[in-house]
Design a protein that fits this description.
Structural class: alpha+beta
Number of domains: 1
Strand content: 15-25%
CATH superfamily: Sortase
Distance between the termini: 143 Å
Number of helices: 4
Shape: elongated
Number of strands: 10
CATH class: Mainly Beta
Radius of gyration: 42 Å
CATH architecture: Beta Barrel
Oligomer: single chain
């Protein structure tokens, strides 16, 4: 008798029918549950783990150089720009204070005159010591309220780099009111930069030197650019050592170009008027000069 398989065998009943249809919804659900299979059923390659960032000598050095560069730029910004503003403000305040002292000296009869010259203008006496302030410089072209102290000598530490002075007089040159060359120097950048705008002077611009006796008025004549070794610009007649002086010259010197000492920029002016303090300041200085009694 042949064996006959019962179609109701439990094992046979549990086996899935390979030919049974599968709905789209079931296929999508199956794909979501299966790792590495996309929604469209395509297998995806597993992602490789990214390598961890490694510190290298070159990378660390680069970071340090960038940081150092930022620090240097910030320092230069402070040193060249912000510090100039702060120091310039201090020198301006010192200039106003000097004006008050000069006014007081005159009121007490202590004007620093040595002797009159041919037309009656007094000659300012040499300061007793290098670094001593004896006058102020007033240049309307540099600003409506520009006034800076002038001290004897051009020493860097005590005069030109001094936050309370900034402008120095070459001790071997003449004084205001004296026939010859009254030569002064100041920085064009840093330490308040009193001569920052020296290249902006225009023909005929008026420049004033104020002393206890009054105001010496100079008219700007022109600029010259020379090598640092051309000290002949300090002669009584600039650049002409063998000629006797007949005029009262003001010579202003500074470095050129800006941020360099390769050359010197020289500004020349000639004295045209003298205003005794008793008669009051020139009309152009009405907003710059400290009023009497203040």
């Amino acid at each position: 008798m042949n064996d006959v398989h019962d179609s109701t065998d439990p094992a046979a009943a549990e086996a899935p029918d390979a030919a049974a249809p599968v709905s789209r919804r079931e296929a999508r659900e199956s794909a979501r549950r299966t790792p590495g299979v996309s929604k469209k059923g395509a297998a995806r390659a597993p992602r490789e783990p990214r390598p961890a960032a490694r510190l290298t000598v070159v990378g660390v050095l680069g970071e340090l150089l960038i940081t150092a560069g930022v620090i240097v730029m910030l320092f230069l910004g402070w040193y060249i720009w912000l510090d100039d503003i702060v120091t310039g403000t201090q020198q301006q305040a010192a200039g106003v204070e000097v004006q008050q002292e000069l006014q007081s000296e005159w009121e007490r009869g202590e004007a620093q005159t040595e002797r009159p010259v041919d037309n009656g203008e007094p000659i300012v006496a040499e300061p007793a010591a290098a670094g001593q302030v004896f006058a102020t410089l007033i240049v309307p072209r540099f600003g409506a309220d520009y006034v800076r102290p002038i001290a004897g000598g051009v020493d860097m530490r005590t005069v030109l780099n001094n936050r309370q002075i900034g402008i120095g007089h070459y001790l071997n040159t003449q004084m205001p009111g004296e026939i010859g060359n009254f030569a002064i120097a100041a920085h064009r950048t840093t330490y308040g930069a009193p001569f920052a705008e020296i290249a902006e002077l225009r023909l005929g611009d008026l420049i004033y030197v104020e002393t206890a006796d009054g105001w010496y008025e100079y008219s700007f004549r022109g600029l010259e650019y020379v090598w640092p070794s051309y000290v002949s610009v300090l002669e009584p007649v600039p650049r002409e050592p063998d000629i006797a002086p007949t005029e009262r010259v003001l010579t202003m010197t500074s470095c050129n170009p800006k941020f360099s000492s390769a050359e010197r920029i020289i500004a020349y002016a000639v004295m045209e008027n003298w205003y005794p303090r008793a008669g009051g300041p020139p009309a152009e200085l009405s907003g710059v000069v400290v009023a009497a009694g203040n």
